[in-house]
Amino acid sequence: MIVTDNHMHLYNHLRLKALKQFKQAGGTHVFLISLLSHHYGIFPKKGEDFKDIFEEHLKLVGKGNQIVGCYAVLSVHPAEITVIGQKLGYDSAAEIMKDALELAARYVAEGKAVAIKSGRPHYEVSDYVWKLSNEVLQHAFSVARDVDCPVQIHTESFTIEGMAEIAKLADKEGLKREKVVKHFAPPAVEEMEEIGLFPSVIASGDNVLKAAQKSSRFLVETDYIDDAKRPGSVLGPKTVPRKIKELVEAGYEDVAYKICVENPEKIYGIEIDQ
Ligand SMILES: [Zn+2]
């Protein structure tokens, strides 16, 4: 059986051992997302400075690929606007982030990564920083359209208005709404289908079962961060395999297949080996 986690990080805690745990629990495929620049001890002064981050991430994904099927997602985290902006000014930060997104898209074009990640801050920011963040996000949609890849988005908490606003930004750049994957989504799968964005449901509590009772149009994730200071956060690496097992036991085998195989294949334009 194929079991796919749509959003996981490897950082400074279990590293590749997390993938071994995932595999032991029944996991087969995972999308690994690069972290913020400071996680790599890098302070980017220009977009090209993300190259070292992306290269390091791709190396890790290569190693992970020997354990389970791993796909690379290259992230320019929305919180970089604050990290970089506090030192270099917010306008410069936005420009650096846009350039870094273009760099990420080049890796996608070369077939080294399957998606980019962008978004807008999940915490309170000034109106000006919010405006810049939306411009960065819109730029992510533009470069994703050019290389025909999805954008995982990290955003403020889910609201219909917020998601609809983001959908319109995608429209402006001609990126299909379903190519915008809302990371850390609640099981509001019907609402998301109406808006058109694609939800990656966080596998906490009975979210996965709740989502499956309504639709099969979603992905599932742990957002495992692999941070030694917060081990097991957000959810441990064995969570998705467990939840998928529960889903199958509850009679939703077809939904499990859809969310672990067909949906990722369609969204990311990949073929999942079985
Ligand atoms: Zn994450």
Q: How would you explain this protein's 3D organization?
A:
- Helix 3 (80-88) packs across helix 4 and helix 9 crosses helix 10.
- This protein has 274 residues and is an alpha/beta fold.
- The longest helix has 21 residues, at 127-147.
- It has an eight-stranded parallel sheet with strand order 1-2-3-4-5-6-7-8.
- It has helices spanning 16-24, 50-64, 80-88, 90-109, 127-147, 160-172, 189-195, 207-214, 239-249, 253-268, and strands at residues 4-8, 29-33, 69-75, 115-119, 151-154, 180-185, 198-202, 219-221.
- The protein has ten helices and eight strands.
- The protein has a single domain, classed as TIM Barrel (Alpha-Beta Barrel).
Q: Number of folding domains? A: 1
The CATH architecture name reads Alpha-Beta Barrel
Mean pLDDT value:
97
CATH superfamily placement: Metal-dependent hydrolases
N-end to C-end Cα span: 8 Å
* Helix content percent band: 40-55%
What is the CATH domain class?
A: Alpha Beta
Give the overall silhouette. globular
What is the number of E strands?
Answer: 8
Number of helices: 10
Q: Largest sheet at a glance?
A: 8 strands, parallel
The radius of gyration is: 17 Å
Major beta sheet, strand line-up = 1-2-3-4-5-6-7-8
